[in-house]
Amino acid sequence: MPSGSCLCGAVQIKVKGKLPEPHACHCTMCRKSTGHFSVGSDVPREQVSISGEDNVRWYQSSETVRRGFCSTCGSPLFFDIPGQDWLGINLGAIDGATETQTIFHIFVGNKGDYYDIVDGLPQFETLPGPDEVPAS
To answer: How far apart are CA 35 and CA 93, in angstroms?
Structure first.
């Protein structure tokens, strides 16, 4: 069972089952909220348990998206679109091996000029269409 936490340990995350294959997001908001690009897995909500949830603060970063972080240490932990059946978990918060591999990059049109994407994975200028998402 994958598990993790924020930097100070005030928020603990447990995932029942395997983490879904993640994607890397290079949008401006992810870069500003994490300090670089973000890699996360969209985990079915019923598979996620959070301890120390009273330490999670939510920032409404756009009309449809909010981001969860620890109110004590500031660690970015979650990407949430309320009403969806999944919760995005930043993989940097997972302790130990994730047993996953990133499968594609999104919003590469917004990536920083200080790095190159050289892993050979599919890249999308914005969000891929449903028929463009690589099978995991």
So the answer is: 14
Tell which phi-psi region holds residue 2, choosing left (phi > 0), alpha (psi between -120 and 50) or beta. Answer: beta
Q: What is the DSSP string of 44-55?
A: EGGGEEEESGGG
Q: State residue 42's pLDDT score.
A: 96
Contact in structure between 47 and 41 (CB atoms under 8 Å): no
Give me the residues of the chain with pLDDT under 50, please. Answer: none
Distance CA(129)–CA(61), nearest Å, equals 23
Segments making up each domain of the chain, as ranges:
3-110
Read off the tokens for 97. 């091996």
| CATH class of the domain at 3-110 | mainly beta
pTM of the model: 0.90
CA atoms of 19 and 45, how far apart (whole Å): 12
